Amino acid sequence: MNHPLLDLPPLTAERFASIEQGVADLLSTGQDVVITQGEALLPLEGCIRSGARPGSTALNVVTGPYGTTFGNWLRGCGANVVDLAVPFDTAVTADQVARALAGHPEIDFVSLVHAEAATGNTNPVAEIGEAVRAHGALFMLDAVASVGAEALLPDVWGVDLCVIGAQKAMGGPAGVSAVSVSERAWARFADNPAAPRRSYLSLLDWKERWIDAGRTALPHAPAQLEMLALEACLDRIAAEGLPAVTARHAAAATATRAGAMALGLAPYVGRDSEAAPVATTLRVPDASLVVAKALAADPAAPLAAGGGALAREMVRVNHYGRAASLPTVLASLTALSTALSTDPSEAVAAAEAAWAETLH
Known about the structure:
Blueprint: H1 13-27, E1 32-36, H2 41-51, E2 57-62, H3 65-76, E3 80-85, H4 94-103, E4 109-113, E5 115-116, E6 121-122, H5 125-135, E7 138-142, H6 154-157, E8 161-165, E9 177-181, H7 183-190, H8 203-211, H9 224-240, H10 242-262, E10 266-267, E11 279-283, H11 287-297, E12 303-305, E13 314-318, H12 326-340, H13 345-358
Parallel strand pairs: 2-3, 2-4, 4-7, 7-8
Antiparallel strand pairs: 1-9, 5-6, 8-9, 10-11, 11-13, 12-13
């Protein structure tokens, strides 16, 4: 008997290219888009290993755990790394980036995470992009947690490498990702003798064998299920409308924040303007125990304790993709209320009012 997920016809080059164009349309970009069939760490590492090399100097902005990973990769490429680290409960500013660039005129590569789902902050990429563009460095942005949840305009903001993944606000699987690549980035890669070649990390291979070859023959067999899931994500976003999708995420974040404060919980990220729309992080003593109790009350609630040392003090309420909805927000707040042995009614009322006000 045929199985709809197993007995699939081969994915054609034409369809692969159309999905690629769908990603470009989502990003409003005229740059080349490369779909990478793996979790977003694949194109992120590919971008760094193609763009950094011995003798280069990189500014690595650290506003969460992924910045540490990027710094390690950059150093592994032999680059000199200037880390600009800020507390994880805040965002970096364009002025901080500009001062770091001015203090190190040799910087030729900048890496930044747009939204940090792990810590709940988001960075002002438009303003930072102006500073990076004025300096002339290549700009790599990890937009995995921001795509679909907030404004993302790589061409307008001067982003040379914009990496996205499907598993957060797009509501898809973790096994497919993509990167938009500017002409400046392609030139930088081609000029780097250490850039990966004949490798799964090689973006240059994709350019030569797929883009430059006219997108007529795929270099290898695509991961069909992930590609079809990415196509479905793009179709679903198009049907709802990207502005409506981002508005829904903003409403979920605002409602969660309001409801949590009604429960007496302080946001981990203090300023509303620096809070990411994909996840709300809260300062909660004995966070792991509180999450365990909340999930015992409602196993479906999208709650998690912070990673590492933050497991003792942070609860993360995830509200991305299909979970960026009022019922999911209310369920999360009710589960937290149960864990804290409090009445959820004020939190529910505050969340409902904030949701309505945000979408008004």
